[in-house]
Amino acid sequence: MMEAFEAVRTLLAVRRYPDRPVPEAIVRKIVEAGRLTGSAMNLQPWHFIVIQDRPTLRRLGALARSGPYVAEAPLAIVVAVEKTGYAVSDASRAIHSMLLVAWSEGVGSNWVGFGGLAKVNALLEIPAGLDALAILPFGYPADRIGRGKKNRKPLRAIAHRERYGQPFE
Is the pLDDT of residue 115 over 80? Predict the structure, then answer.
């Protein structure tokens, strides 16, 4: 198990998965991470639909323009949100919690879609008061990936102290 900062430091998008199931204990831990995430006024405006059925995963992959690799994943979680003010922000927090917890267990993922998933709503029979926000495919990485090798701006380019433009050193 890795510590929180190490998970943030090393988290990378995973888009290729071998045919290896994610153990049920890890699936539950991932979903619990989403459930336990804080939300505005504790409204918890999310629903998590856990999908492990191979034909449904293939159909999700076909519907996800930005993520056809969902079809190869052994697991996907579709995050549906209520149509309320902070739902997207709150669900984004829950999604990131799930990604980090999965990563800490050696399971990779990536955020697929960002709204515009009306056909996913229909496929999964998501009620009219909710919208599918994202599809999160999960699985063990098929390729060795360099944990922590990220192309990020240096801290001095994006962090300021007290006022914008004051160096954060």
Answer: no
* pTM, entire model: 0.93
Beta bridge partners of 109: 13, 138
Structure tokens at 166: 């004051």
Checking if the pLDDT of 117 tops 90, the result is yes
**Cβ neighbours for 146, distance < 8 A, ≥ 6 positions apart:** 12
149 class by beta-carbon count within 10 Å (0-12 exposed, 13-18 middle, 19+ buried): exposed
Q: How confident is the model at residue 147 (pLDDT cuts 50, 70, 90)?
A: low
**Three-state secondary structure of the chain:** CCCHHHHHHHCCECCCCCCCCCCHHHHHHHHHHHHHCCCHHHCCCEEEEEECCHHHHHHHHHHCCCCHHHHHCCEEEEEEEECCCCHHHHHHHHHHHHHHHHHHCCCEECCECCCCCHHHHHHCCCCCCEEEEEEEEEECCCCCCCCCCCCCCCHHHHCECCCCCCECC
| Token reading at 90 | 């709150």
